[in-house]
Design goal:
By secondary structure, the protein is mainly alpha-helical. The protein is built from eight helices and no strands.
Length: 176
């Protein structure tokens, strides 16, 4: 191939790159997005991320979840079942159903942590296998699973509202 042919190829590539760059500059001048003051949709658990950031900014230490006992008195298992629908992607709740990504949660209350037969738990949860799932332990788990057992396979960010956690715990207690 002659040098003239190579010059044409290189000039074509450079021209295409210049056209693309100029198009990008013109497009960014024509379309200017307006950033919203408040998010329209906040995913579950994301509002919990704002509180620790605000506490850290003000110099306060981030606190764990509120004690659950007083909320358990007015817990609603029907509402807990509705809140627990976000868990259906990874868990099953009926007796005898197979494990999914996460274990079956039938009759999990007062059972040892990491004790569902046929499910391989992460080492983070196996470290707590001598403890039992009670309302206080589940409150901490449902608040932020990654803080309860650092390194757990569960990627769910948690339930920030204490009444939602109480309702889910009451729903899990009803599964017997």
């Amino acid at each position: 191939m002659s040098s003239f042919e190579w010059n044409k190829i290189i000039a074509s590539v450079l021209t295409a790159m210049i056209v693309a760059m100029v198009s990008g500059i013109l497009a960014s001048q024509l379309v200017r997005p307006k950033h919203l003051e408040h998010p329209i949709y906040v995913p579950p658990g994301a509002e919990a991320g704002a509180a620790p950031a605000a506490a850290a900014a003000s110099g306060q230490a981030a606190a764990g979840p509120e004690p659950i006992a007083q909320y358990m008195a007015k817990a609603d298992p029907k509402h807990g079942e509705q809140v627990a629908k976000v868990c259906l992607q990874c868990h099953t709740f009926a007796k005898g159903e197979a494990n999914k990504i996460g274990p079956n949660l039938w009759d999990v209350m007062e059972e040892n942590i990491a004790s569902v037969p046929g499910y391989q738990f992460s080492p983070a949860l196996l470290a707590d296998k001598d403890k039992k799932w009670d309302p206080d332990e589940l409150n901490i788990w449902l608040f932020k699973p990654q803080e309860f057992a650092k390194g757990t396979k569960m990627t769910f960010p948690g339930l920030p509202k204490v009444q939602d956690r109480a309702d889910v715990i009451d729903y899990l207690e009803s599964l017997k």
